[in-house]
Amino acid sequence: MLELRSLHYQAATAPEPVLRGASVALEPGAPALVAGRSGSGKTTLLDLICGLADPSSGSILWKGEALNARQRRWLCGLVFQFPERHFLGLSVGQELKLGQRRLPSEQVEAVLAQVGLQGVPLQQAPERLSGGQQRRLALAVQLLRNPQVLLLDEPTAGLDWSVRDEVLQLLGALSRDRVLLVVTHEPELFDGLVEPGRAWRLEEGLLAQMR
Ligand SMILES: Nc1ncnc2c1ncn2[C@@H]1O[C@H](COP(=O)(O)OP(=O)(O)OP(=O)(O)O)[C@@H](O)[C@H]1O
Ligand SMILES: [Mg+2]
Which range marks the domain in which residue 90 is found? Predict the structure, then answer.
């Protein structure tokens, strides 16, 4: 179980805190969702969970143990809101293999098929993929790391309806044996995926259960 305990966060340059005591406990087995309007702090929340930032106060626990930022970076995989800003590899193939010493090509192909990118040329530059394909590539990179906590920032942005359904199905499957958290400003798109009781609204720096 991943537990956020009373997270407060104020960026050094910001006049107001973004989080003012956000708390939630997330179990594996089914997707969890945090909805909130633009600027409510959704991306900030994911940055804190996955160890890209530290809360001003409060703690983040995994199986009852508080983790530092480095431990959280190991535990979590984050698919960024704008994945195109974060590609490091010169090619799709390089991007998939970053940080992995040995990665059998069958495994790479299986993950590409899982995200609906089968047959994409591995020599191609990531930037030349479409927005939706880039998002799925970023997900594939995280799946190859097989993190116990998978965090997705606006995962349906840039996806058309035909692939959106496939992505939702995939997220359902991926959540069975890990904690999977989606943040979005369009929670209605996830109505069929997220069970009541697993959805929260981020408002005024606090998390409140929806429905
Ligand atoms: N590095 C920073 N310095 C100062 N303020 C910041 C910084 N990062 C974020 N903020 C502020 O924190 C608030 C929350 O931003 P955040 O990006 O987490 O919102 P969001 O819910 O993800 O929005 P969106 O739906 O537009 O992606 C905003 O008011 C933003 O201006
Ligand atoms: Mg955001």
Answer: 2-209
Per-10-residue mean pLDDT of the chain, 211 residues long, equals: 98 93 97 97 98 97 98 97 89 89 89 92 94 91 95 86 82 96 95 93 97 67
Give the C-alpha distances (Å, rounded to integers) separating 194 from 34, 57, 108, 181, 185: 10, 29, 28, 10, 14
Which ligand sits nearest to residue 80's alpha carbon? 2
Q: What is the CATH number of the domain that holds 33?
A: 3.40.50.300
Total count of domains within the chain: 1
Nearest residue by C-alpha to atom 1 in ligand 1: 11
Full-model pTM? 0.94
Task: Identify which of 38, 27, 131 has the alpha carbon closest to the alpha carbon of residue 87.
Answer: 131
Q: Which of 9, 20, 33, 42 to mutate to test the pocket of ligand 1 (most atoms within 8 A of CB)?
A: 42
